[in-house]
Amino acid sequence: MQSLDRLVRALRRMPGVGPRQAERFAAYFLRAPQGEVEEFIAAVISMKQDVKLCPVCYAYSEKDRCEVCADPDRDHSSICVVEDPQDIEAIEKTGAFKGLYHVLHGAISPMEGKGAEHVKIKELLTRLQESKVPVQEVIIATDPDAEGETTAMYLADLLRDMVPHISRIGYGVPLGGDLDYLDEMTLLYSLKGRTKI
Amino acid sequence: MQSLDRLVRALRRMPGVGPRQAERFAAYFLRAPQGEVEEFIAAVISMKQDVKLCPVCYAYSEKDRCEVCADPDRDHSSICVVEDPQDIEAIEKTGAFKGLYHVLHGAISPMEGKGAEHVKIKELLTRLQESKVPVQEVIIATDPDAEGETTAMYLADLLRDMVPHISRIGYGVPLGGDLDYLDEMTLLYSLKGRTKI
User: Fold this and answer.
1) Claim to verify: residue B79 and residue B157 sit in the same structural domain
2) Quick check: A43 contacting B, CB < 8 Å?
């Protein structure tokens, strides 16, 4: 059926959606009440109209600048670099960081042929050069996987002469976790990163 | 951000989508070119307009009746009962069944409080009673899990006096599978269902 196949193709463009999940999603749209489908479409349209990327940090924003960049009470001399806009919310929840963010929108992945030009590293360099408040600290909070690690190392090398303090978020045992179930690399890092008590 | 939250809420109504996946999908819509998003919306709208449920078997259809029900060359005295419309395609690929289908749109699940009235069993009974060609055979091809099994047993009891031949699809070792990796129940059924060679 043409209409169904067309929707399945469109649904498969969403990240991580395989043929079976796309079929289940299509079945949902078929069964859902008309009003619910209309609300879905309206939500996509208004999001697409309203939400932009902040031209400073590339986080999501419904205004000219995102709330963090526009906030004079935040420490504009400190920047936390993350891979995805969603990471910001996770860090904000800790309440431990009062600086600004920079969203790379991905990570360097030699395996997938994604070099530094595929993420917003050039934009970070320009931002550091043009910042009115000199940036004193960059915290690299890319994901703790191979791509995030590669990106962190690459960034640290690039920024060494531009920023006095460069750091990487600490690895370790997650709170509430069970040592038995942890992979050995995390445990190794948690031992390396031990702190005196 | 209101627009983003609204879309995340809409995306979470799709089956099996949790908060993290909904955020990733929203990020996809944000990044996708305008044309791709418009094609997605057009696909949803046209599917919703064009695809209906066949009033005979409740499979998806873009016409008055679905292709199978409308085909005079199919055996109208044999009905294969499945849980979901997608199951039809899987059975059609085998080429081993030339009858009609009946889609229950789910299965009986006492655990989830879904009784017989939640699936299209009443519609099957009416169909059997009103069928011009007397139905000689019903093959119950619900999923090989607890709900599918419950539904199969319930249906078999209901249909016993209405249909001469009622059968359940055979359980067994899947082709290409490795005996080592099979659960014992499947293996048990494959032994019970052994055929002479």
Assistant:
1) yes
2) yes
**Which one of A4, A34, A36 would you mutate to disrupt binding with B, by most B Cβ within 10 Å of its Cβ?**
A4
Cα(A105)–Cα(A109) distance, rounded to whole angstroms? 12
Q: List the 4-23 stretch of A: residues with Cβ below 8 A of B.
A: 4, 6-7, 9-11, 13-16, 20-21, 23
Q: Is the ipTM of this complex over 0.85?
A: no
Query: What is the C-alpha to C-alpha distance for residues A33 and A158, in angstroms, rounded to an integer?
Result: 53
pLDDT in tens, A82-93: 998 888 988 888
The CATH number of whichever domain residue B13 belongs to comes to: 1.10.8.420
Is the residue at A185 inside a domain?
A: no
Whether residues B86 and B149 fall in one domain: yes
Query: Distance between CA A183 and CA B94 in Å, rounded?
Result: 44
Give tens-digit pLDDT for A152-185: 999 999 999 999 999 888 777 777 667 677 677 7
A61, part of any domain: no
